[in-house]
Amino acid sequence: MDGKFLTLTTYSFLSPYFSFSTSLFLDRILRRTPVRGSYQLQAQMNRAVYDERTPGALVPTSVAEASRAMAGDTTLSENYAFAGMHHIFDQHVDSAVPRLQFANDDKHLLACCSLDGTLSIMILSPSPPSVKVVLKGHAGPVTDFAWSLSNDVIVSTSKDGTLRIWNTEDGRCIREVRDPEASELLCCTFQPMNNNLTVVGNSKHLLQVVNISTGKKVKGGSSKLTGRVLSMSFDAPGRILWAGDDRGSVFSFLFDMATGKLTKAKRLVVSEGSPICSISARSWISREARDPSLLINACVNKLLLYRVVDNEGTLQLKRSFPIKHGSQPLHSIFCPLMSFRQGACVVTGSEDACVYFFDVERNTKAIVNKLQGHGGPVLDVSFNCDESLLASADSTGMVIIWRREQK
């Protein structure tokens, strides 16, 4: 019920200089104002995207000379040529790694979670790359995780029915929040404008907003889907949340920034009975083109690209790209620098053990590149902030770091 306290376990955290309570520690690090001006500027730009839509291309046009110069003024195929494997991590071998993600605005800090019940934080520089810390505490497979904006904290969900909050410096579990219905927790994400709030999806079809500083559910921050909640993503301003379930539906919710309340807005049936494994939202903004979009993996042997057409998160299919995807929980991403060059690229894992790059502008032969080297279905992919390194994870527990060719 709304406002009900969840079962909560608190772990001590000691600063070298001060002793903080867990709530005060979390409140300070999660509410701190970002110092990255680029993030603040991007958020301000994103707020206008639904109210002042410019018709035209999905991506920057050929006249974007300044933007292309920032990206090296090269073609997508040239930009996404890779020199080969930079490093292979195998600490989770024999257990699938369903998710991995570079830290925000960071070139060398990477994390992943495993069905073996642990998470790893890896550092890729200085060479050789190494495992910085392993996060241990979950009693079941870890299904998802998310970095806080400042990278001080990671939240993780598990089939053991708990949400855990971790300090990324020493790997200590700061807090454990138990699901009141003891259901499996399957996905999570931070509210992008208030990292005190985390949205969690569970196996009993429930989506709920949790204040991780207090361990309390937010009043009005719960809603039911038609199936197990497998994936979710906010738009950049944090006003719209999309969530996908295992019965093929994607729901949009309006998020009240002042109260944390969720209001169900729209529902799209992508494919009846096909699990929505991955949702990735992106507001493509430049001086030449603006087109908020959603990238979806849905076990239909295609990667789906949708356009967001209104303020309630209504989706309209724009493109699809053929991949092998029938049953595995595959994920995909937008390339972080796409708005600075002619053309735009998305990356996805595939059940044929390959990583695929697609140009969303090409009407034919959309494949830009294909990376081979995994021994099983590639479940997730992640670029670092400058696209110099790509990480990919597979069902065998292998994590490969790919180095892009230097031009």
TrEMBL record:
<keyword id="KW-0677">Repeat</keyword>
<dbReference type="GO" id="GO:1990841">
    <property type="term" value="F:promoter-specific chromatin binding"/>
</dbReference>
<feature type="repeat" description="WD">
    <location>
        <begin position="135"/>
        <end position="176"/>
    </location>
</feature>
<dbReference type="InterPro" id="IPR015943">
    <property type="entry name" value="WD40/YVTN_repeat-like_dom_sf"/>
</dbReference>
<dbReference type="InterPro" id="IPR019775">
    <property type="entry name" value="WD40_repeat_CS"/>
</dbReference>
<dbReference type="InterPro" id="IPR051350">
    <property type="entry name" value="WD_repeat-ST_regulator"/>
</dbReference>
<keyword id="KW-0853">WD repeat</keyword>
<dbReference type="InterPro" id="IPR001680">
    <property type="entry name" value="WD40_rpt"/>
</dbReference>
<dbReference type="Pfam" id="PF00400">
    <property type="entry name" value="WD40"/>
</dbReference>
<dbReference type="GO" id="GO:0005634">
    <property type="term" value="C:nucleus"/>
</dbReference>
<feature type="repeat" description="WD">
    <location>
        <begin position="371"/>
        <end position="407"/>
    </location>
</feature>
<dbReference type="InterPro" id="IPR036322">
    <property type="entry name" value="WD40_repeat_dom_sf"/>
</dbReference>
<protein>
    <recommendedName>
        <fullName>Anaphase-promoting complex subunit 4 WD40 domain-containing protein</fullName>
    </recommendedName>
</protein>
